C-alpha cells in the first residue's frame, strides 16, 4: 500500500514537472488513473471521470470475450440479488430526492427487474441466396456513457445496466447530483453482484461527486462510444452537441383524450391511476386531460370518486400556479413529485386525508396544460368535437413524440389519433403506465428515446449492428 502511494506521489510530481514546461497540457486528475483513483470500500466508484472510464474500458475488453451465457448470468444475478433490496432502494430514493411515493417506487423497481429484456433481445438477422449467407448481428459499442435523471434514478440505472450489459458493454453512469447517494450505493452494489457472478470488476462505474461539468467531461471522453441520455431537453441538446452517437430520451407532455363513446368511469379511474403514479414524475404520465363537453362533468365526478380533489376557485388555481411555476416558466423543484396534500397546503388550500391528485378545469393555453409540471396536478380541457380534441392533443404534446393516451370505443378515432400523434407510446383505454408494460403487454424501459427516435429502448438499441458476409455457401434451399 505504501509503495502504491509512493508511486502515485512520484507520478503526480513528474506530471507537475512536465506541466511546468512547454510540453502538451496534461490533465493531472485523469492521468493518474487506475486503482489509486478508486474510492475505497465502494467498488465501481472512482474519484475522476478518466479513472472510471479507464477501468470500465479494461473490464469491457474482458467482457466482450465472454459468452452470451456469461452475460445472461450477470443479468440473472442482478435480478435475483436486487429483489430483496427493492424496498430499501425505494425508501433511499424517496429520502434523498423527496419525490414520489415509496409504494409506487417499489412497483417501478419490481417492474424494472421483471420486464427489462436481457440477451434474448439481441435478435440475429440472416439472408441467404446463391451467393452465400450474410448475417447481421448486434455487437457491443464498448463503454457507454449513460446519464440518469433525478426523477427515476434507481429504475433508470438498473434498467440501463441490464440492457447495456446484455449487449456486451460496460457503463459509466453520470447521475443526477440530487440522487448521488443512492446512485453511488446502487452502482457499487451492481458492481459487486456482477463481479461475484462472473468475476469481472468495474463493468458498471461512476464517480464520487457527480456534477454537470463531470457529465460534460464524460460526453467528450474519447473512450465513450455511445451516449444514452435520460433527462430534460437541456441535457439531450448538450449531448447532441458532443459529436458522438446519442440515444436521447427527453421530456414529454402526454395528453389523455376522452371522447363520448368511452367507458367514462373506467377512463376516470385509469387517468387518476396513471397521473398520480409516483406523483406524476414519470415522463409518460398523463399531464392533461382533453374531454368532450358532453361527458366532462361525469368524467370529473368519477375522477373525484377515484381520489382527486377538484379546485374550482380561480384564486386558488392562481395561487397553485404562483407557488409551483417559476418566473422562467419551469416548475419549481420544491414541488416536483410532492404529494398533492403538500402542494395544496403550501397554497393555503385546506385539505383532508391524502388525495392522489389535484384537478381543475382550464383552457388549453393554461401553463398547467402546456408545461411538463411533474406534479400531481392535472388540468382538464373541454372540447366540442373529435377534430378539436385531436388538434388540442397535438398542440399540448407539442411535437415531443413522447406519449399520448386515448379513451374511446370508436375504432376509427382510436386509429386516427394513434397515427396522428406520432408518439413513441400510445395507450388506448388504459393508464399511461400500461405503455411501460405495467398492467400492459410488452417489455419495460425507463429510457424512452423521443428526439432520436429509438423510442422504448432495450438491449438491441445499445448494440452496433454489424454485417458479416460468407460467400461460399450455407444456402441449403
Ligand atoms: P435534468 O435534465 O435536470 O437532469 C437529467 C440528467 O442530466 C442529470 O444527470 C443531470 O445531472 C444531467 N444534466 C442536466 N443538464 C446537463 C448539462 N447541461 N450537461 C450535462 N449534464 C446535464 O432532468 P431531471 O429533472 O433529473 O429529470 C426530469 C426530466 O427528464 C423531465 O423532463 C422528464 O420528462 C425527463 N425524463 C425523460 C425520460 C424518457 O425516457 N424520455 C425518462 C425520465 C425522465
From TrEMBL:
Pfam families assigned to the protein according to its UniProt record, in alphabetical order: Aldedh
Q: Does the keyword Flavoprotein apply?
A: no
The record's keywords, sorted A to Z, are: NAD, Oxidoreductase
Superkingdom is Bacteria
All copies of the Aldehyde dehydrogenase domain together span 47-431
Q: Give the transmembrane ranges.
A: none
The protein's name in its UniProt record: Aldehyde dehydrogenase EutE
